[in-house]
Amino acid sequence: MKSFKKFLRTGLGLIGALIILALILVALFANQIAPYDPNAQNYDQILMPPNAEHIFGTDDLGRDIFSRVVFGSQISIKAALISVGIAMIIGVPIGLFTGYYRGFWDEWVVMRIIDAMQAFPFLILALAISAVLGSGFGNAMLAIGIGFAPSFVRITRGQVLSLRNMEYVNAAKSVGVKDMRIIFRHILPNALGPIIIQATLAMATGILAEASLSYLGLGVQPPTASWGSMLNQAQTLMSVAPYATYYPGMAIFIVVLGFNLLGDGLQQFLDPRTRK
Predict the structure, then answer these.
(1) For every residue of the chain, which 3-state class applies, written as one string?
(2) What number is the average pLDDT over the span 79-106?
(3) pLDDT: is 174 or 276 the higher one?
(4) Where do the structural domains in the chain lie, given as residue ranges?
């Protein structure tokens, strides 16, 4: 309870948490919230502006934009969790072992590969990997996860390097504790704070990356509702139905802002230097 009160005092972090909670609830109860089937086409109501029946209006196929935005939240939640999950599964173990054992493989193989990957802007790297793998949500998540992995390698390795010579680690070695137990029972728990913060911030970038790949046709494929694909389909309607871009764009903005605020709040909460 005391820790929860400390988090509440972070202010903006609480706002971020509420935004993410709202996103999760919308995604979970999309069937109950959305008034229409997101893929149902009604050619009698094409490009209708926002009104009492369709509060966000309709698109060029007569589909209810509000319903599509609501169901698009499910894709965004999946994008955040799956892409960051893949990145952590790849990056955290590599960072743990290279940071703990050091040596030739750490300095001259793994870190040089990481440097080469991070020489490219993240989105360009994800775009290149996705283009090789092919279009589709699964391939987009794998591409984004691989693109994220180097940052998790670096942050985990940095934490391990700062912890591997601590007194409690040396004490565990002196009594014969095996390396695997030291890594996973003594070092990893103490390195989790920065990793969790990085994961939260990466989720925001993951949502943006998924929207970008879907916008370019490499992510979620029509007719599945995705905020990025909705923007792609609405770009040709700017002169006649600009509202078709407002709502998916605003949804992306609010959710990404929420994850960034939550990440900042967690950083204030978990970083001993900023605790009161």
Answers:
(1) CHHHHHHHCCCHHHHHHHHHHHHHHHHHCHHHHCCCCCCCCCCCCCCCCCCCCCCCCECCCCCEHHHHHHHHHHHHHHHHHHHHHHHHHHHHHHHHHHHHHCHHHHHHHHHHHHHHHHCCCHHHHHHHHHHHHCCCHHHHHHHHHHHHHHHHHHHHHHHHHHHCCCHHHHHHHHCCCCHHHHHHHHHHHHHHHHHHHHHHHHHHHHHHHHHHHHHCCCCCCCCCCCHHHHHHHHHHHCCCCCHHHHHHHHHHHHHHHHHHHHHHHHHHHHCHHHCC
(2) 94
(3) 174
(4) 65-274
pLDDT digit string (tens) for 198-240?
A: 999 999 999 999 999 999 888 988 889 999 999 988 988 888 8
- The label of the residue with tokens 């989720």 reads 203
Would the pLDDT of 263 be above 80?
A: yes
Asked if residues 270 and 197 have their Cβ atoms less than 8 Å apart, the reply is yes
65-274: which CATH topology? MetI-like fold (1.10.3720)
